[in-house]
Amino acid sequence: MGLTDTLAARFDVEAHDSDVRTELVAGLTTFLAMSYIIVVNPFILAEAIQIPGYEFFEVVQMIAIATVLSSALATLVMALYANRPFGLAPGLGLNAFFAFTVVLGLGIPWETALAAVFVEGVLFMLLTAVGAREYVIRLFPEPVKRSVGAGIGLFLLFIGFQELEIVVPDDATLVTLGGIFGNPWAVLGLLGLVFTFGLWARGVTGSIVIGILTTSVVGWGLTLAGVFERGTVTPETLPSAQYDISPLAGAFVDGLTQIEPLTFVLVVFTFFFVDFFDTAGTLIGVSQFGDFLDDDGDLPDMDKPLMADAVGTTAGAVLGTSTVTTYIESSTGVEEGGRTGLTALVVALLFVASLAVIPVVAAIPEYASFIALIVVGVMMLQGLVEVDWSDPAWAVSAGLTVTVMPFAYSIADGLAAGIIAYPLIKVAVGDYDEVALGQYAIAALLAAYYVLQTRGVIL
């Protein structure tokens, strides 16, 4: 029996109306669509993770390695355990929450933030192992679950606009349009953004990766041609290749000793909530493309891909990166015909192979990497169509979830606003019996937390 026959038998390819060649092409397609995270995740997390004795771009390379390894491991579990064609990697939005809200906003040490991710991953594994997914889902208001993706999208858009300096601080209005065409950084970022949107609109596979790399090449070309000095639109210096991640890996252990209980619980809760429902929603959404759902609209044996997500998150925290989740870009491979874990196996192996280009990551200008935030942010806004805006409880709860996230610069605050608002509006319109006791309890606990937090009683 040859390798092709062995793979076909191991992943039961024929029974899923596929073949090995189709699965290989699907795996390559999915990897190209989601590989931008290898560049984007390190630049986001490096804003918050500072390691004494190491420069910014050395830390970027460490996080890139952690990103690759955690993605490969989680996707390998998806392939071999769940036999599903889904790719996993650190999620956009949760890495922004980690860096900008938890570490830079709340002042929580990055080691403690990794500890929160680790605890969330372990909790996720335990709940998945005992099959408690459906009980957890019932605890959260439906409008919050339906709108959280769009809220994260707006949050990513706001961060992306700031990083590209398209939006800048203003004393009178807090934010305003920046002097874009007097700023080479912003001009190149904007041109790269237009180019990337054009590729995406035309359905080009790997459009975000192509956009990031093309924008970087243009920046370096202008620098080498003498139009700009080094440090203007390209990194001023480039570090040597950095493959030692020992200062990063295992740092979560130190974080477990620096915990402020109430704040830590809220951070773990937020990581868990977003990861849990983002993964569940993504799995259902991608499964629709591959006709994997049963007659009730559920994914059979859903606990298996959820376990892959949980394992990836836990391992990612150990290695030094934020929450790992299933990627909606997996739909590109499914559309190419990927139906089994062989597709995911190819994605995992390509992640491992990408370790060879880690030194290149440091050469990519930051404005090029942050293009991805705006493009993905726009994609995530389509979740708004799932909200029943004619229902007052849905409209208020979803509306606050979506808008508070960017305005408060926190995914956690947006979720809390939606969760607290839902039972209040239900009671106001006389539908108090439609709210579960657990939903009242969570809303009350969050309300109490914010009373204490905004009065300065707790961090």
UniProtKB/TrEMBL annotation:
<dbReference type="InterPro" id="IPR045018">
    <property type="entry name" value="Azg-like"/>
</dbReference>
<feature type="transmembrane region" description="Helical">
    <location>
        <begin position="24"/>
        <end position="44"/>
    </location>
</feature>
<dbReference type="InterPro" id="IPR006043">
    <property type="entry name" value="NCS2"/>
</dbReference>
<feature type="transmembrane region" description="Helical">
    <location>
        <begin position="180"/>
        <end position="201"/>
    </location>
</feature>
<keyword id="KW-0812">Transmembrane</keyword>
<keyword id="KW-1133">Transmembrane helix</keyword>
<feature type="transmembrane region" description="Helical">
    <location>
        <begin position="264"/>
        <end position="286"/>
    </location>
</feature>
<feature type="transmembrane region" description="Helical">
    <location>
        <begin position="208"/>
        <end position="228"/>
    </location>
</feature>
<feature type="transmembrane region" description="Helical">
    <location>
        <begin position="340"/>
        <end position="361"/>
    </location>
</feature>
<keyword id="KW-1003">Cell membrane</keyword>
<feature type="transmembrane region" description="Helical">
    <location>
        <begin position="56"/>
        <end position="81"/>
    </location>
</feature>
<dbReference type="Pfam" id="PF00860">
    <property type="entry name" value="Xan_ur_permease"/>
</dbReference>
<feature type="transmembrane region" description="Helical">
    <location>
        <begin position="397"/>
        <end position="423"/>
    </location>
</feature>
<comment type="similarity">
    <text>Belongs to the nucleobase:cation symporter-2 (NCS2) (TC 2.A.40) family. Azg-like subfamily.</text>
</comment>
<feature type="transmembrane region" description="Helical">
    <location>
        <begin position="435"/>
        <end position="452"/>
    </location>
</feature>
<feature type="transmembrane region" description="Helical">
    <location>
        <begin position="114"/>
        <end position="136"/>
    </location>
</feature>
<dbReference type="GO" id="GO:1904823">
    <property type="term" value="P:purine nucleobase transmembrane transport"/>
</dbReference>
<feature type="transmembrane region" description="Helical">
    <location>
        <begin position="367"/>
        <end position="385"/>
    </location>
</feature>
<feature type="transmembrane region" description="Helical">
    <location>
        <begin position="306"/>
        <end position="328"/>
    </location>
</feature>
<feature type="transmembrane region" description="Helical">
    <location>
        <begin position="148"/>
        <end position="168"/>
    </location>
</feature>
<protein>
    <submittedName>
        <fullName>NCS2 family permease</fullName>
    </submittedName>
</protein>
<keyword id="KW-0472">Membrane</keyword>
<feature type="transmembrane region" description="Helical">
    <location>
        <begin position="88"/>
        <end position="108"/>
    </location>
</feature>
<keyword id="KW-0813">Transport</keyword>
<dbReference type="InterPro" id="IPR026033">
    <property type="entry name" value="Azg-like_bact_archaea"/>
</dbReference>
<dbReference type="GO" id="GO:0005886">
    <property type="term" value="C:plasma membrane"/>
</dbReference>
